[in-house]
Design brief:
6 strands; 4 helices; two-stranded antiparallel ribbon
C-alpha cells in the first residue's frame, strides 16, 4: 500500500539549528532517500518552495479568491512529501521517524486512496 509522508517544518526550529546542521541533516536525508528508493520503498519525493511563494485559491458562492501564502497561519508549514510503499501504516510511521524533519516540525503519515477503486465506485 502507498502512504504519503507530508513533511511540515517550523522555521523557528530550523533557524535555531547550529551552523551547518541543516546541511548535515539534508545530506543524511537525501542519502536515506536514496537507500529507500534502492529498496523500492520510496516511490517519489519533492520539496516545496517557501510558503511566501504560495497562492491559496478558494471558490465561494461562484467567486474565486486568490490570496498570497499558505492557507492558514501556522508555525509548521508543508515543506514537501515522500510517497512510499509500505506493508502497513506502522511501517510507514517507522519510515517517517527515520527522516530528521520530524525533529523540526511534523511528518503526517496518510494512506493514499486507490483512485481506480473510486472511479469504479462512482462510474467515472
Amino acid at each position: 500500500m502507498q502512504y504519503l509522508l507530508l513533511v511540515y517544518t517550523d522555521d523557528t526550529l530550523l533557524e535555531a539549528l547550529p551552523e551547518g546542521q541543516f546541511d548535515t541533516m539534508m545530506r543524511g536525508c537525501l542519502q536515506h532517500a536514496d537507500q529507500l528508493r534502492g529498496q523500492g520503498k520510496l516511490l517519489d519525493f519533492k520539496q516545496l518552495e517557501a510558503p511566501a511563494s504560495a497562492r491559496s485559491v478558494r471558490i465561494r458562492g461562484g467567486r474565486a479568491s486568490v490570496t498570497d501564502g499558505p492557507f492558514a497561519e501556522s508555525k509548521e508549514v508543508l515543506a514537501g512529501f515522500n510517497l512510499v510503499e509500505a506493508d502497513s501504516i506502522e511501517e510507514a510511521v517507522r519510515m517517517a521517524q527515520e527522516f530528521p524533519w520530524a525533529g523540526t516540525g511534523c511528518i503526517e503519515v496518510r494512506p493514499v486512496r486507490d483512485v481506480d477503486a473510486v472511479r469504479k465506485r462512482v462510474g467515472a
